[in-house]
Design a protein that fits this description.
about 475 residues; four-stranded parallel sheet; alpha/beta
């Protein structure tokens, strides 16, 4: 399922999830990022599948993941897998997930025969690159090699999920949503559509220039969006200094092998030194459903001292923030661990973290955009021109990826075919609904462990995974 920002993708997914739960289907609600997962009340696909932060996996590491009964049972018992914001999922990770599900479910069908629903807009932000393409290609042949069958020349390779081998094997039916539910400002829609269609001309530039450094009225504190973390950190530090009272600092604790510790520090998003005051705007960076927060929950610090932090979440709930840990384990033993309060300042956020949000007002700085689609994501967060204040924009801010533009045309055509097929089905749809319910009921009765299956007892060295 795809469509422009604000076309109702998240709402439609929620309706489908509600339907699935209504017929007692076992549905896994996941997304490519923690922030996106919070919008759906789910978890990251990395966490759900057990792959963690790995960019590739050795075959024996896949076995190690599947040997964990809680992961194996989860993968086997799920009837429907939903992955939201699929534009931010690397193509090679989609192939890894496909391979893990095939092995866990003992099936050669794509994703082990599970129904898969992928949702996202490729005009929005692509996956964040951690490793160079050449570094991935140079891994030994013993490493995860599913991506090496990629037939396009290296210079033609892209990093979007639709370049995955497993994407083509799924035989996806496309639903392209065309209505707009976020923006009713026709002038603003003209701007966003021009960016999306790669038809930005002088008229569009002039409209955006009129919103440069505009002071937004009727709002107390517009959200500020920047391209880079360094700008976000500087903005948050300035706002922190404006607050009265004492600054409390909380240092991250760590133990284990240095390379693994550094890897954890980069992935957890919590700062090594957390500086807070009463009244500070903050964002949680870890899931803790029992305590009432997830990665992306925002709030304001209500009380703090050297041992306690109390945050009033945007929902109104007051949370006593626990000291959380992040670990890398081997054979059940921690090889590296870090611990910190799972918070960071949130007066300003990056464009990447804003994806999926709807904002009444925003101050947006696009002068340092470095990725095609970044400007479209930032601008499409806002409901109308009256809620937009621009600090400026560079040439790349209003560009979209040419490959995405071409693939989007294919998606539109595929959606028309799907629409035609649905019309032809007519009353058959209701029969299919009953068959689907029956299939779900049967699968719920099956045991998680197939009979006569021998559990593997192999142990491998250096098979680290992220828990």
């Amino acid at each position: 399922m795809t469509g422009a920002a604000g076309s109702g993708k998240t709402h439609t997914l929620r309706e489908y999830i509600s339907y699935l739960r209504g017929i007692n289907a076992s549905v896994a609600v996941t997304a490519s990022t923690g922030i996106a997962a919070t919008h759906m009340g789910g978890v990251t696909i990395h966490s759900w599948s057990g792959i963690g932060i790995k960019d590739f996996l050795h075959p024996y590491e896949i076995e190690t993941i599947i040997e964990k009964s809680y992961i194996r049972n989860r993968l086997r018992n799920t009837s429907v897998l939903i992955i939201d914001e699929v534009s931010m999922l690397h193509h090679f990770r989609l192939d890894i997930i496909d391979e893990i599900l095939k092995q866990a479910r003992v099936s050669t069908e794509p994703f082990g025969g599970m129904q898969v629903v992928l949702c996202g807009d490729f005009f929005q932000l692509p996956p964040i690159g951690k490793r160079k393409e050449s570094e991935q290609d140079d891994e030994s042949s013993a490493a995860f090699a599913f991506d090496k069958s990629f037939s396009e020349p290296r210079e033609a390779r892209k990093k979007f999920a639709y370049h995955a081998r497993s994407w083509d094997n799924l035989g996806l039916k496309v639903c392209y949503l065309l209505e707009q539910h976020r923006q009713e400002d026709q002038k603003y829609l003209k701007v966003l559509n021009a960016i999306r269609d790669n038809t930005v001309e002088d008229e569009i530039i002039e409209i955006l220039n009129e919103r440069t450094n505009v002071v937004i009225s009727n709002t107390a504190s517009p959200t500020r969006l920047y391209s880079h973390n360094v700008d976000v950190d500087a903005e948050n530090e300035r706002e922190l200094k404006k607050l009265p009272g004492e600054i409390f600092s909380y240092e991250m604790e760590s133990r284990g092998k240095r390379p693994l510790v550094e890897s954890l520090k980069k992935s957890c998003l919590a700062p090594e030194t957390l500086r807070l005051k009463k009244g500070a705007k903050v964002m949680f960076v870890k899931n803790n459903f029992d305590e009432g927060f997830v990665n992306g929950t925002q709030g304001v610090v209500e009380f703090l001292n050297h041992e306690t932090i109390m945050v009033k979440a945007s929902s109104g709930r007051v949370i006593n923030v626990p000291f959380e840990s992040w670990r890398i384990d081997e054979d059940g033993k921690a090889k590296a661990e870090i611990a910190q309060y799972p918070l960071r300042l949130a007066w300003a956020i990056t464009v990447h973290k804003s994806q999926g949000m709807s904002l009444e007002a925003a101050e947006i700085d696009l002068r340092d955009c470095f990725e095609k689609g970044m400007g479209y994501v930032a601008l499409s967060r806002v409901r109308s021109l009256s809620g937009l204040s621009l600090k400026g924009f560079n040439n790349i801010a209003l560009c979209v990826d040419d490959g995405v533009l071409e693939y989007d045309r294919k998606l539109r055509k595929s959606s028309e075919i799907s629409k035609s097929q649905i019309k032809k089905l007519g009353p058959r749809i209701f029969t299919m609904h009953s068959e689907f319910k029956n299939k779900i009921s049967v699968s719920k009765l099956q045991k998680s462990e197939p009979k006569n299956e021998k559990k593997k007892k192999k142990k491998f060295k250096h098979s680290y995974y992220y828990q």
